[in-house]
Design goal:
single chain, Aminopeptidase
Length: about 260
């Protein structure tokens, strides 16, 4: 069972990423924070977030690599309100500032409380087991050809041990799955769930089933389930909202593109 307030856990979790205590962010203001963490790849992501913008509750924290603080401070002078950071002009400024060598991604961050979770069942949905390892790796590599197979195996093994990975199997093939990668801190209190359904199997309720079962298990373990998805991914947002997730914040991340 959860022994701490969920909102407090979520704020502490993202405060560590941002190098700034989000509970101290003033309402209606944008805080610019220098963060050495921005210079190194994040565990579980394999990339460094050069700039991480976190907009929540009419507050915003902009976490930036220390050597880029001067440039970003000048570029941000025109943006006074937290809501301004979610509008196209701010994204254009970031794109112009960092150029083609960087990618810009916006995510909606959601979390779920025990009293809100709703579990959905479909035929073929069950906890992923160790003998499903190859099916999991095969499905993930099919969706993401560049996925690191050893990391996939390590993460799903941990998930299986804790019982937090759920999948839908059709004719012995894994077609939908919800699992959680290793994270850099607070692993005993937070799980970042991700879910995938093979395109030809969408629209059958598989996503709701795997997400809801994995979410319920994470909560049973006393951890907070968090999910991130694109604000434009209406299908994923509908699944998360149906299961009981609530929006915590919007994140804008600037990441350096991999060398070709």
């Amino acid at each position: 069972m959860l022994v701490r307030d969920i909102e407090a856990i979520v704020k502490e979790y993202f405060s560590a990423y941002l190098c700034f205590d989000v509970s101290k962010a003033p309402e209606g203001k944008v805080v610019l924070a220098s963060c050495a963490r921005r210079a190194a790849p994040e565990k579980g992501w394999g990339m460094a977030f050069t700039v991480w913008v976190h907009v929540f509750d009419n507050r915003a924290v902009v976490s930036c690599r220390p050597d880029l603080m001067g440039q970003l401070r000048v570029a941000m002078k025109a943006f006074k309100s937290p809501g301004d950071l979610l509008k196209p002009p701010f994204s254009r400024v970031l794109s112009e500032l960092f150029g083609e060598a960087y990618a810009l991604r916006t995510k909606c961050i959601l979390y779920c409380k025990p009293e809100h979770v709703k579990v959905f069942d479909v035929q073929g949905c069950r906890a992923v087991q160790l003998n499903d390892m190859e099916a999991f790796v095969t499905m993930t590599v099919e969706r993401y050809p560049g996925a690191d197979s050893p990391c996939l195996r390590t993460d799903i093994t941990r998930n299986i041990k804790d019982g937090i990975a759920y999948g839908v199997f059709k004719e012995s093939k894994l077609v939908s799955v919800c699992d959680a990668p290793a994270i850099a801190h607070m692993q005993d209190e937070v799980e970042e769930l991700g879910f995938e359904t093979l395109p030809r199997y969408t629209g059958r309720g598989f996503g709701k089933a795997v997400v809801s079962h994995a979410t319920a298990r994470v909560l049973q373990l006393g951890r907070v389930p968090i999910c991130r998805t694109s604000p434009s991914n209406s299908g994923a947002l509908r699944i998360l909202e149906a299961v009981g997730y609530t929006v915590h914040a919007h994140k804008i991340a600037v990441t350096q593109r991999a060398s070709q």
